[in-house]
Amino acid sequence: MVTRVEAQAPVETPTQSAPTAPASGQAVAPQLPSDPARPTAVEPVEAPASVPAQTAAPVETPVAPPAVPAPAAPPAAPSAPAAMDVSPATGAGVQAAEEDAALPHDLSPEGMFMAADWVVKAVMLSLAFASLVTWTVWVAKSLQLFGAKIRANKALKAISKSRHLADALAVLETRQGVVASMVRAAQHEMQSSDGAIDLAGGEGVKERVASALARIEARAGRQMSKGTGVLASIGSTAPFVGLFGTVWGIMNSFIGIAETQTTNLAVVAPGIAEALLATAIGLVAAIPAVIIYNVFARSVTGYRQLLADAAAGIERLVSRDLDYRRSALVAARDKDHRHAAE
């Protein structure tokens, strides 16, 4: 008779529940705890009290394989895409901040002028003043030339309708203008030479009248041309002054590159913008000055032609008066000779 060997139930640990009872005739292998660091005490199996000498097969106790603890989950590694997303964004933000710090926020002409170097500011102010002078001269000389041409045309019509110098003087004596002054100058010369005309003839009077009219015409031409020389100077020098501002601005740009040790466009752009603005202002001052100077040159030439026509008409009146006077003198002498012959 075989005695049943029963294994005592293992002591229940706080973290594990008691296993189910083994089947009869089998030995119970101690179960390894899930935590290898805390081994659970297992009661030794009691040997049977008496084993018969008959051929009893020994009870084989199967050895259960030790329970392998489950591998702990590896710690979550930071995802690479998130790092990649953060890093470029941070670099782009830094670069954008640098560009915002380097570039001026106001790129209008006023903003670029306020951000420019003092030399470039001086160039811009001088060119702006030159442009103001150009337009001031244009307005003033246009009004002056317009009024002078109107007066000259009216006086020329009066001279053309007159048969004698006295008739023209009666019309133009109270008027203002260069032609009226020429008529009065001719009349004054005639009166001054009245005593010598009958003896010396009228050739000297004609020369003196022509000289007086020529001087009045030249003086009027100089007075009308006054101010146009400033336009010529502005038109010829303003582009070079603007070019000086351009060179200075580009030089500042290269200095900025050398100081920052970078070729970023944000460093170069402000200086180039200021330089181009100086060039633009130079062209704005020069181009109108050249055009207005050429217009005034042609207008003054036309005005002097009007004065020349008026002077020629006055000389014709003087010559006609002298001829009439000589004819009257010759007629008077012939009459005297006839009376003396009778």
Describe this structure in words.
This protein is an all-alpha fold. The protein is built from nine helices and no strands. The chain has helices at residues 80-102, 109-115, 118-161, 165-172, 178-192, 194-200, 203-225, 228-260, 265-341. The radius of gyration is 60 Å and the shape is rod-shaped.
**Counting H and I runs of at least 4 residues, what is the number of helices?**
9
Instruction: Assess the beta-strand content as a share of residues.
Output: under 5%
Please give the number of β-strands.
0
Task: Kindly report how far apart the N and C termini lie.
Answer: 216 Å
The low-confidence parts are: 1-65, 73-94
Tell me roughly what share of residues is in helical segments.
55-70%
Gyration radius over CA: 60 Å
Oligomer: single chain
Inertia-based shape:
rod-shaped
Q: Indicate the mean pLDDT.
A: 73
Largest sheet: none
Instruction: Give the SSE string.
Output: HHHHHHHHH
Tell me the structural class.
mainly alpha
Helices and strands in order:
Elements: H1 80-102, H2 109-115, H3 118-161, H4 165-172, H5 178-192, H6 194-200, H7 203-225, H8 228-260, H9 265-341
Short description:
The protein is an all-alpha fold and about 350 residues long. The protein contains nine helices and no strands.
